[in-house]
Amino acid sequence: MNPSHASEPAALPARHYLNAPATGFMSWANTRDHKRVGVMFLVGTTISFAIGGFFALLIRLELLTPGPTVMDAMTYNRIFTLHGVVMIFLFMIPAIPSGFGNFVLPLMIGAKDVAFPKINLLSFYLYLVGAAIAIYGMINGGTDTGWTFYTPYSTTTATKVVPVLLGAFVLGFSSILTGLNFIVTTHTMRAPGIGWNRMPLFVWSIYATSVIQILATPVLGMSLLLVAIENAFGWGIFDPARGGDPVLFQHFFWFYSHPAVYIMILPAMAVISEVVCAFSRKNIFGYKAVAYSSLGIAFVGFFTWGHHLFTSGQSAVDAGIFGVLSMFVGIFTAIKVFNWTATMYKGSISFKTPFAYFVGFLFFLVFGGMTGVALATLSLDVHWHDTYFVVAHFHFIMVGATLMAFLAALHYWLPKITGRMYSEGWGLVAAVMVVLGFNFTFIPQFLLGNEGMPRRYFSYPEKFWALNVASTAGASVLGFGLFIVLVYMLVALRWGPLAGSNPWNSRGFEWATQSPPAPENFETTPVYTGGPHEYDEDAVQQPALPAAEPKHV
Amino acid sequence: MNEILRRMLWLPEQASEHARQVDGLHYFVIITTMVAAFGVFATAIYFFVRYRRRTDEDVTPQVHPRAIHEVLFIGVPLALFLVWFAIGFPQYVRLSLPPPDAQDVFVQGKKWMWKFAYPGGPNAVDTLRVPANRPVRLLITSRDVIHSFYVPALRLKMDALPGRYTQTWFTADKPGRYEIFCAEYCGLGHSSMLGELVVMPEQEFDDWVAAQRRNVLAAAQDGGPSGERVLPSSNVVEEGRRVAAEQGCLKCHSVDGTRHIGPTWVDLYLRQQRLKGGKNVTADEAYLTKSMMDPAADVADGYQNVMPTYQGKMSPPEVAAIVEYIKSLRTPAVRSGPTEGPAYESIPRK
Asked: Does the domain made of A35-548 have the CATH classification 1.20.210.10?
């Protein structure tokens, strides 16, 4: 199964976080172990992704014909709202940081846990509560505002929006607490030898994400609360009929939600930086450039929100400033893309499933990113704004890039998390289906946007028909590919061959301990003498990485 | 060249000089994107092959960038993006500077129709007529939620905000009929909030305006409601159908029996209508009239309370005409009147 390992290990380590200290339900419900919290987040977000994906397929099915196909307009409006809310708040934002971040970040910096293990568990419970409130609101009343909740529509609609708003509000706190935990952990719990310039790039990117999470999410909470208040009690905050300002909400909302896009993409970049090094057996080209560009994206991301308002009557000067600042995000992303590509130079490239997803990621990020900069080119945005071009653009980034990274992480770290290996053959088959299906789904949507089809359309003129059929066909291939992934992953959990401690021969720091790790991660605090992902002659010959610290109590 | 690229990118017709210039930028952006992407992917594919793994114990040299690499990584895309911006920004600024001699049209979006008013008349619903080769300034607002006025053929879009005016302008230079979409999600009828832009040769437009104003004047002298033109009509059902189409009724109520945003009008007259809350009512003339004037009072079961009131929006004869029109809509078995053609000519869909 796994040619990189000559002798297959006979058994899992005797004691690991899955069987120690206990295995019962209560031992999970009360756990303080960052690895178990991470696994619970992964299960929760994967279920959310399945729900959101099901709604996505319903949307594509409805759009198969120009008129009503399988539902009425009200149902359609509710379903695209559900799709957006579930995918963004329940999957995209928590999946990589709270799931994989929780699991591997402490391992990568040689820590035994995160700084505040109880708050970490609280963060998961807040996720459950927020998800429960939001899903209750969707079933009972069904919001029809779109995930953007634009006023005054959201404050005057007959459907119930308050539960969904409160759900998103609670989920925001889950996100804030996770971010807080990671920042403190990164600052205070790095093992000896891991200076700031020797941290794995995953940690850098998650750190940048956490900064956005704690600075921007409170603004979301505030704006959602204001909408809920106006909707419930009729205060005139955003509704002009009562003296409010409808565009004010868009400023508030995008002040969070644009940085939130970087909450979704920075963790993806985090994963990719690890995967490209591990499967090229190469140190990263331009460590500092990749690390600092994450901070650059986090910083400049706060000053780009106005590019969502180019057609709202915003002044041309404001629009110009927001346009240029938005392009800087493109520059920081370009730095990363070039450095990842250059990392493969003189490497030793192994085309395993995680690397296949890296290739998909690179493709989607380049086109998603370039179309993003094109959208910041103001006169083009006037034509594309609120059309399917925008839909295709952000799906290239969020589904294309982030989902590819999520899948890459899932395959790369499956042996770390479970000690077992997936089926490489099925992995590559599914990866090809996912990447091709994705292209067939969203490339037609770029063209639909060019042609002028606005988004959130229940029915459409017949000239848009052919491209919509193509998009739906692509979505079915994408859905089927993802279903295959689900099946062989579940099979691997139970029957997958044992993988050993480090099946990839990766020199990422998280592999320096047994897989699955012991509850306390390391027996003694490790001491690091080199950077992450060093595969040169000297680094490889040094026998033990990390060296155990001499006991000094 | 323009034509080939336009078709390859599925772009709609170009009805103004602005549209042609925006498309020029579009082509430049697409071509440079493709070249840059090709460069990255060609390099990556070369590396996949050249540096494929030979053994599992491969060691690789530590490679670190020199300063010049990172400078190039930043400088090249920055220069490219700034060129895009330098072309796009002036085009955007121009949209906010209407020429002083532009003709004004007031645009009002409401769920789910577009109303157009020319200073001094006339008014129109869903059809915006403008002269070719003359600048037209649109002053846009909304009566309820946010809408967005979008004409793909002009590469033009501007939000319609309640409680404030936005403006944009264009000079269409190709007579013809173009689609108007609502681009900002506004609820149940969002995707049927369609309009039509009719670009007329200048002389034809002037004649049309003059004729319309004569009608308005004549109607005012006859004591009819000002601003609405009243056509002499011998057939009150025909008149009802015309008013219903003009007022946008048929966007939510079907006349072929299909269920839409509102109840269908087919066989509505004298039907036992179940109301929200369980009461039943006979849909007689009184109920139909009341539903137009105070739609929230008796909402049909299974439908949303989304209809605006038409109190003061239609003259009594117009309301009566709509009621007569509804009465004429019977299924074939009991139909007494002439066969119905399509009641509402929607926008030609290509």
From this structure: yes
* Three-point CA angle B275, B276, B280, nearest 5°: 25
Cβ–Cβ contact A237 with B under 8 A? no
Nearest beta carbon to residue A456 from set B56, B63, B190: B190
C-alpha–C-alpha distance, residues B35 and A331, integer Å: 17
| pLDDT tens column, B55-85 | 877 888 888 899 999 999 999 999 999 999 9
Cα B158 from Cα B180, distance rounded (Å): 12
Residue A294 has which token pair?
Answer: 């994450």
The whole-number pLDDT of residue B334 equals: 42
CATH of the domain at B163: 2.60.40.420
Closest CA to A175 of A65, A83, A256, A108: A256
Q: What is the ipTM of this complex?
A: 0.90
B203 with B245, same domain? no
Instruction: Find the CATH number of the domain harbouring B7.
Output: 1.10.287
Distance CA A518, CA A511 (A): 12
Rounded to whole angstroms, how far apart are CA atoms B169 and B67?
Answer: 48
Q: B89: which chain A residues are within 8 Å (Cβ-Cβ)?
A: 320, 323, 378-379
**Closest CB to A505 among B9, B56, B84:** B56
pLDDT for B340 equals 40
Which residues 40-79 of chain B have a CB within 8 Å of chain A? 40-41, 43-44, 47-48, 51-54, 56-65, 69-70, 73-74, 77-78
User: Is B251 in the same domain as B297?
Assistant: yes
Amino acid present at B345: E
Q: What are phi and psi of A20, to 5 degrees?
A: -130, 145
Neighbours of B223 (CB within 10 A): 7
Longest dimension (CA), chain B: 97
Contacting A residues, span 87-106, partner chain B, CB-CB under 8 Å:
none
**Residue range B156-174: mean pLDDT, rounded:** 94
Whether B82 has its CB under 8 Å from any CB of chain A: the answer is yes
Cβ-Cβ contacts under 8 Å for A388 (sequence gap 6 or more): A445, A446, A448, A449, A453, A454, A455
Whether the per-residue pLDDT at B229 is higher than 50: the answer is no
A3–B56 C-beta distance less than 8 A: yes
Whether B272 is covered by a domain: the verdict is yes
Predicted TM-score (pTM) of the model is 0.86
Best CA proximity match to B143, nearest among B181, B113, B169, B118: B113
pLDDT given for residue A229 in this prediction:
87
Q: Are B208 and B234 in contact (CB under 8 A)?
A: no
**Regions of chain A with pLDDT less than 70:** 1-10, 541-553
Among B136, B146, B63, CA closest to B110: B146
Residue-range domain boundaries for chain A: 35-548
Q: Tell me how far the alpha carbon of residue A243 is from its chain's centroid.
A: 39
CA distance A18 to A32: 13
Of B53, B92, B162, the CB nearest to A348: B53
Residue-number span of the structural domain to which B319 is assigned: 232-334
| Mean pLDDT for all residues in chain B | 85
Q: Give the per-residue pLDDT at B73.
A: 93
Q: Would you say A171 and A89 are in contact if contact means Cβ atoms under 8 Å apart?
A: yes
> How far apart, in whole angstroms, are the C-alpha atoms of residue B293 and residue B290?
5
| B341 is a domain residue | no
Sheet containing B176-182: order of strands? B127-131, B195-200, B176-182, B147-151, B156-160
Contact A173, A155 (CB under 8 A): no
pLDDT, tens digit (0-9, with 9 covering 90-100), for B324-342: 888 888 765 443 444 443 4
Question: Burial level of B57, CB count in 10 A (0-12/13-18/19+)?
Answer: exposed
Residues 258-277 of B with CB under 8 A from A: 259, 261
